Structures are given as C-alpha cells and as structure tokens.
Amino acid sequence: MDNGLLILGNGFDLDLGMNTRYSDFWDSEGWKNAKMTCPEKYLVTSLEKYRITHNWFDLESGLQDGATRLLNRLSNIYTGREYYESYQILINKLKEYILTQQESFVPKDNSVAEQLLKVISISTSLKCIYTFNYTDVSKICERFQIANLPPVYHVHGSLKNYIGC
What we know:
By secondary structure, this protein is mostly helical. The chain is built from nine helices and three strands, in the order βαααααααβαβα.
C-alpha cells in the first residue's frame, strides 16, 4: 500500500482530550458572549431552536436553516448587513474557542490518536491525511514531539487559513 490515505474526524480531537464538539462551544463563554453581541438576534434564536428541535447541535445545518428562514421573512426590521455581522461574530467566537482548545488541551494518557500520530510519523506508505477538523494536526504533533507527517488537507478549512494560527 504505497498510496495510503488517512481520514480524521472529530473523534480524533476528542480522543486527544479536546472539547471540540459544537455542543461544547454552545456551553462556553464564547457562545454566551456571541449571543449578547450579535446585532441580529434571529440567527441566535434560530440556532437555539434548531438545537432543541433536533436534540443535538449541528452548527452548519443550523446556520443554513437560519439563513433560509431569514430570507423568507426579511423585512425593514432586519437587514442582510446585521445578519452578516452576527454570523461573523459567531464564527469568530467559534474560531477562538477551537484555538483555545488546540493550545490548552491536556492530552489523555495513551490516547489512540497519539499512538496513531506516532505510527504515521514513521510510516512510508501513508501519502496524505484528510481531516474534517479545524484544528492544526502539525501543531498537535508538536505537542508530542512528532515530526515527518505527510501532507494534511483540511476538508472544511483550518484555523491556520482562517486566522493565521
């Protein structure tokens, strides 16, 4: 297997000890602060309703649902600018939250994710890593003194691309 591919999801970050579920962000001070500072409350209300009615927190679907509902009821009260500003506030708070998790997590002893990183660093058959996480795999590896990773591609984007971390 000379063209090996590894795909990482949120279970990887969770196994390392990071609290990177959207529900963790929901319970954070960042979310509470975002709720208070958003100029357009419909977005926040829509996300809260989405979480309650779907019994879990899917931020991307909630944002899409909120945007669709808002477009259907735009009036003189709400403007696209206010919605965009609120969206930016929420996204920036989420970025700050994930960055804090990445920088300050306490690694779990003998996590499967850490063991996997160590194996990857000496593997010659793995050609690339795709991750659905926003966290920076290279920075995580630095915490464990692990080098020699194959190229890492972020499916949804990364903190590095969003805020230069």
